[in-house]
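Supplementary Methods S3. Input chains for the assembly prediction are listed below.
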Amino acid sequence: MHVFLGANNIVSPLGFTTAANFSAISSGKSAVTEHHFPFSDHSFYCSKIDRDQLNSHFSKRNEKSSFTFLEKMCVLSIQEVLAQSNIDLADKNNLLMISTTKGNIDVLEHAYAELPAGREYLSEIAKSIADVFHCANTPLVVSNACISGLLAMIIAKRFIENNRYQNIIVCGADLVSEFTLSGFRSFSALSDEVCKPFDAARKGINLGEAAASILLSAQPLSKLIVSGGASANDANHISGPSRTGDGLFQAIAHTLTEANKKTVDFICAHGTATEYNDEMESVAFSRHNLQHLPVNSLKGYYGHTLGAAGVLESIIALESLKQNTLIASAGFETQGTTHLDHVIRQTTKLELQSCLKTASGFGGCNAAAIFEKIL
Amino acid sequence: MEVQEIIKNLKVQIVEQLNLEEVKPEDIDANAPLFGDGLGLDSIDALELIVLLEKNYEIKIQDPKEAKAIFTSVQTMADYVASKMK
Amino acid sequence: MNAIISSYCKIVPNKISVGGKLFFEEASEKELPEFLSAAYKYGELNYPKFHKMDKLCKLGMLATELALRNCPDWKALDKSRIALIFSNQSSSLDSDRNHAHAISDKQNYFPSPSVFVYTLPNIIMGEIAIKHKISGENAFFISNQFDPELLFSYSTILLQTTGTEFVVCGWVNCDRTHNDAFVYCVKKSNFKEQNSGPELDHTSENIRQLYNT
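Predicted structure tokens for the full assembly:
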């Protein structure tokens, strides 16, 4: 059976709909800009959603209870998917999944005086969102570092294939916070300019915030399916990627086998713009002889949106398939990895049928999925 | 501060900061490599050593690549600290 | 295809049981770090990296090590066919609070990379993967309480549809007053094991009972 990819939404600094986001990045617009924070003399390059704009958007819902900023992002994103698809989360056959790494991390920074205690627990986010949409099933939370979003989609696919649910909405979300900025800075992982994935002069990551949601369904809601997906662990180091790309290699191998494919039309990679991650991906792709395929990273547009990244980037990749458009890998100028010789320089029209999406993260985790058009 | 005294302090600070529970400060050979065979430290420990120098000696290593030479052994770390304190 | 729970380990403060039998107990109540340290010594883990881990990982490493020891033939398997499925209520909040504390005082601002790296719950699966060379599927779920149906159904899907042959599955939680770990191993029942332990059918009811007793 097929698992179809249906309605979706992105809430990001580039807009609150998928269409607005795809149009912005098609014209080369990046959400990453210089930001100053009260906690540091240094500035940070990151991508942040305008608080006032989102709050005013959210206030139209006239919700009675209080929500954190992250929960508002999620609610707005899920609301869009529900409106487009007529799916009812009050139906026992339907499930909401949340993917996030740090959830309401700003609660630990005492951002909300008015909220009841305990909102730092990830299941509390699930509960507050479930109340809004009257979910029949307790939303399932996946927190698996930077593969959370893509892994949640793979898990959703498996649940649908095994008749556990008919429809699953996966919503990925994370914030930019002092917590993550200071942590990644202590790792010397932050770039002091807009990041440059796969480029020779790449200096590290930018953090970004977004909520992105997508519907996976047993019903033929679209011409797009997820035909394979897998995860694997490097079993090498808890923060550094494997030099030989073992985990990613294996995740891609299982994904290609499941999709019964040897190659795809393009790769939407993880591409964080750290020295080691991008080189690791180059090694893993070349071990599958995929190093000559058009490849992009979307981190130059959004920064690294952590638990949202897998969902957000999958939605853009699917839009690329729909619109037959290869999106340029923002920030790339000069080949900076050993093997990747076709990093997409310019957004171009091209007939596209299939895409490989990958993600890798702390804890040595890797995930891959293949999206395809069907006739 | 004399280099010997810095070495003595660094050994205690390293064991403490890196949670080397099964290592006693006096057992660390100042000339043995910190990474690889010697104490078997890894990349996260290297980042932690950068914090250690900042916290205890107010020395900031800006370029992580520079850290590699400084963190060869306790001796090289002590020499670096001594040179910055003068 | 049927599957079997081939071994399990449960840790609550000051007490560890393996396969339902008491393995280690502290006579006097100790703080969690001291208890974990004592259990590490008693269990002869001989893995110095253990001391660098946060409490969540220490709990999970101990429980996993002891569960795997009780199921010796897992070592003969292709390690890329062994999956790790973990879950908890509190994510990495214990380390999160430590990192948040380190950045709360602007006069004494030293975020520590070795604390920050543990501010993700799935790091425990990374540690287990490294120690035991396990490289298969990973998933970390957050649920408000131990959820045997979820763990059972996702393990079953992996065993039936992905080439996974063995699952190390569990719950490991570290929070102010709620510290416990329960790790069990699930194998396909056609997998021959000479040294059979206390085998039980892989059902959510059995998982629930093992966790509750």
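The helical segments of chain C are 32-42, 55-69, 93-102, 113-116, 123-132, 148-161, 204-212. The radius of gyration of chain C is 17 Å.
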